[in-house]
Amino acid sequence: DAMVIQNPRYQVTQFGKPVTLSCSQTLNHNVMYWYQQKSSQAPKLLFHYYDKDFNNEADTPDNFQSRRPNTSFCFLDIRSPGLGDAAMYLCATTIIGGGTGELFFGEGSRLTVL
Amino acid sequence: ILNVEQSPQSLHVQEGDSTNFTCSFPSSNFYALHWYRWETAKSPEALFVMTLNGDEKKKGRISATLNTKEGYSYLYIKGSQPEDSATYLCAFNNFNKFYFGSGTKLNVKP
Questions:
Q1: Which terminus has fewer CB within 10 Å in chain B: N or C?
Q2: According to the model, what pLDDT value does residue B95 have?
Q3: Are the C-beta atoms of B54 and B66 separated by less than 8 Å?
Q4: CB proximity list for A38: less than 8 A, separation 6 or greater
Q5: Residue from B73, B65, B61 nearest B26 by CA
Q6: Alpha helix locations (H) across chain A?
Q7: Secondary structure letter of residue B103 according to DSSP
Q8: A101–B41: do the CB atoms touch at under 8 Å?
């Protein structure tokens, strides 16, 4: 059974129309990450949460925001998607203070911007 | 932002061939180096988490080595099979922020 679930798997939006992507986990991991991957490029870290502590990467555009209302859920909000935001968005979790330190990923949400 | 490089970008091999890829990463402030396998339409899955210089890890036909002093790791696949076709990503753990390479896309032809 999938332990990190991302919804939707595919999202098509219009230029400027807000989008929310969700990630849920059943692993009770304390850290959750959002990555953006554009075609054939390295996944790029956007944000991560260590419990409720939010950590923003310096080069993450202001257009991107995130929420983690509880341990299990994390959301990525794109306020005004542009054509350059079309990408695969990956959610990953890990536990700090126990375990092997490996990341557990969802299957990703592919965003298309028209 | 830390620079993690992988080579080659893509690789086409015949079934039964052995192959290897490279991941290079900063040699300072090393904590861990991860390898992930990402099949199309699936989620990336961990292959190895490597923490010590000189580490060698093996899982079936896949193995990996680590050199933290010079900042590189090799992934080896012995006797490639079509089901090995995937993108192989490495990730450098820097204080629990993970920086990825762009991956090596492996295609194994029957």
A1: C
A2: 86
A3: yes
A4: A44, A86, A87, A88
A5: B73
A6: none
A7: -
A8: no
* Shortest alpha-carbon distance between residue B15 and chain A (Å): 24
Which chain B positions have a beta carbon within 8 Å of A102's beta carbon? 34, 46, 49
The amino acid that residue A74 corresponds to is C
Tell me what percent of the residues of chain B surpass a pLDDT of 70: 99
SS3 A10: strand
Residue B31: count other Cβ atoms within 10 Å of its Cβ. 13
The model's confidence at residue B1, banded by pLDDT at 50, 70 and 90, is: low
One-letter identity of residue A106: G
Q: Using the CB atoms, write b or e for A29-43: b if 16+ within 10 Å.
A: bbbbbbbbbeeeebb
Contact assignment for B32 to A90 by CB distance below 8 Å: no
Chain A residue whose CA is closest to B93: A101
